[in-house]
Structures are given as C-alpha cells and as structure tokens.
Amino acid sequence: MAPFIPLEESFPDIREGVRSLCAQFSGEYWREKDQKRAYPAEFVVALTAAGYLAALIPEKYGGSGLPISAAVAILEEIHRSGCNGAACHAQMYIMGTVLRHGSEEQKQRYLPGIASGELRLQAFGVTEPNTGSDTTQLKTMAVRSDDSYVVNGQKIWTSRAEYSDLLLLLARTTPLDEVKSRRHGLSVFLVEMNKVEGLEIRPIRTMINHATTELFFSDMHIPIDSLIGQEGEGFSYILDGMNAERILIGSESIGDSRFFIDRATAYAKEREIFGRPIGQNQGVQFPIARSHASMEAAHLMVCKAAALFDAGIPCGPEANMAKLLAGDAAWEAADMCMQTFGGFGFAEEYDIERKFRESRLYQIAPISTNMILGYIGQHVLGLPRSY
C-alpha cells in the first residue's frame, strides 16, 4: 500500500483549482438557489467543464483516471468554500457500478458522455417508502418480457432525478419468496429516463435545497441491455459502490467542518464585546478548539479509508467509520459556529444557517448513524445482529 499521507497535503493544484472555481459562486448565489429551491446548474456546468466530475473515470473513456483520494480533495474543497457538492457528487460514485460491472459496450456507450457532460448520471434509485434502509426487502419489480424488462414500483429520496439523463435503478427480478438468500434476485439497470414511458417524477420539498424526488414506475419498459452485469447479482454491485459513497460523503463533511471552523475563528477574532475579542473567552475559544480536534481526527479516518480504497484493500469498516465520524464532526462544528455567531448566525447573509441545515443531512443520509453503529457492532466487534 502507498504511504499514508493526510489528504490536506496532497493534490495542491487540484485544491487550488477548485477554490478558484468556487470563488465564482458566492454565498449570494447559493442563497438565491436555496430560497427558490433551484438546481445550481451553472455550478455543475462549471465543475463539468473543468473536468472535476470526471476525475474517477479512466482516461480511455474521457476522464482523468485519478484515485478516489483526488475526488476526496475536490469535494472537501467545494464544501470548505461554502458551496455544495450534493448537486452533483453522485456522478462520481454511481458511475463506478458501470465501470466495474458493466459490459465494454456499455462503458463505451455511456462513460465518455458522462465525462464530457453530454450525459448526466446523477440519480440513484434504491430506497423505497416501506423498506427504508432494508434494501433486500424492496418491492419494485423488473419482469423480463421478450426484448425488455417491465418495471413497476416506487422509489423515494432519489435525488437529482429531474436533472439527470440516466438513472441507476435497483429492482427485484426474482420474487423474494423464490430466492435462497434475501440478497439474491436483485438486479441493477441503467435507465435512459428521457427515452421511457411509465415513469413519473414527483419533487419533495425539504429543509435544504437537495432536489430530491419520488419515482413511480407503471409498466415502464426498458431494453434488455439496460441490465448491468448479471441478473440477480445487483445487491453485491450496489454494496461494491457504497464504500466510495461513504468516503466521498465523509470528505464533504470534513469540508463543512472546515467551513464552520474557519468562519467561527475569524469571527471570534474580530467580534469585540466588553472591550475584547470574544475569542479570548474560554467559553468561545474552547468549543472552536474542540471542533478542530474532532475534525482532524475524522479527517484521518477519511484519509485512511481513501488510501485503502485506492490500494484495492477491503475498507468497509473504515469507509463507514469515516462517514460516521466526519458527519458527527460537521454537526458539532455547525452547532459551535452557530453559537459563536449568536444571533447573527441566524441571518441568511452569513451563510451559517444554510450550511447548518445542509450539514445536518449527513446524520441520516445516505445512511443513518445508527445503521453504521449496527454495522460496526456486528461486523467489526462480532456482536449479535441488531437489525
């Protein structure tokens, strides 16, 4: 395995490029999008044109062929700058299912377009209203019929579906009562959403601007060649990509933590009450210092998980702990920053309240902290299965 290097010290050119790009999208830009619940299309176009969203796509398919540690640097800097990578981060890890398990024809058909921005692969259809995180119990069915699969069912919390050309869909192809293991009989499909009928997309308005939706499938016909890999093996394909998802979401939370700590530190130095800066008071200074320590510890776990992933070493525990610790660090820093700013933290113009809301998401998505704790308890510590 390559030497372990904290990612803050790596990819300096990439980090500087991302900071320069993000500087073009001020807090005012994000506040307007947030108020209108509008998709930050201009920001996504700029990231695409700069090649950042194609960082993990191999060069032979038009990408940069960089390791996941580079993608970690990209997303961390986006969030530290006060921007929000959630508008497009899924493209970095969703395409991995096609890259690792798709046919060469599928890779040639889709990956170059994804890399150039001609195609957007942003939507990931897994969660359902009645099954939540119990993925093996999902009800959406894809039934083989001559030269197509016919899909019926429903998905929820499928973000960016309105702004994506392609949907990575997990559906059951063999009924649950006909398989030996609940993990079998699930298949993954790459759906060209603008070419199908029987798909309804309903936006869900939430406390943050996350462009999430419900999907309804009613006799939606998709071609046979929409299937990725082998029929019935989709659950393992999805699990294969979840480590990358956990690591990259963790990097965003580290970026959020740095945003809050940067803002709180600067404000505590300049804000004077009773004739001295508030940062001189231990009641203000110590929470900032503790947040910094928590962030640095979580950052090391993100670094470790990324290093293992890039080395091809199994990293399920590390990826999950990275997401857990980074999400906790971001939420701790968000609360600290709001407390440091006092009433001004509630004012939209400082962007604290917006980022406060955004950072809260990663306590429950894409997987809740309790699910990760259950995973650690069972698979790392050997405790009885809790769910």
Structure explained in plain terms:
This protein has helices spanning 12-22, 27-36, 41-49, 68-80, 90-101, 104-116, 234-270, 282-310, 316-341, 352-360, 369-380, and strands at residues 121-125, 141-145, 148-156, 166-172, 186-192, 199-204, 212-223, 227-228, 272-273, 276-277. The protein is of the alpha+beta class. It folds into 3 domains: 7-116, Butyryl-Coa Dehydrogenase, subunit A, domain 1 (Orthogonal Bundle); 121-232, Butyryl-CoA Dehydrogenase, subunit A, domain 2, CATH 2.40.110; 239-380, Up-down Bundle (Butyryl-CoA Dehydrogenase, subunit A, domain 3). The strands form 3 sheets. It has a 4-stranded mixed beta sheet. A 4-stranded antiparallel beta sheet has the order 2-3-7-6, with no helix packed on it. Helix 4 packs parallel to helix 7, helix 5 (90-101) runs antiparallel to helix 6 (104-116) and helix 9 runs antiparallel to helix 10. The two termini are 34 Å apart. The mean pLDDT is 95.
Task: Round the Cα radius of gyration to an integer and report it.
Answer: 21 Å
**Through-space gap between termini:** 34 Å
DSSP, total strands: 10
**Shape call:** globular
Structure summary:
The protein is of the alpha+beta class. It has helices at about 10-20, 25-35, 40-50, 70-80, 90-100, 105-115, 235-270, 280-310, 315-340, 350-360, 370-380, and strands at about 120-125, 140-145, 150-155, 165-170, 185-190, 200-205, 210-225, 225-230, 270-275, 275. The two termini are about 35 Å apart.
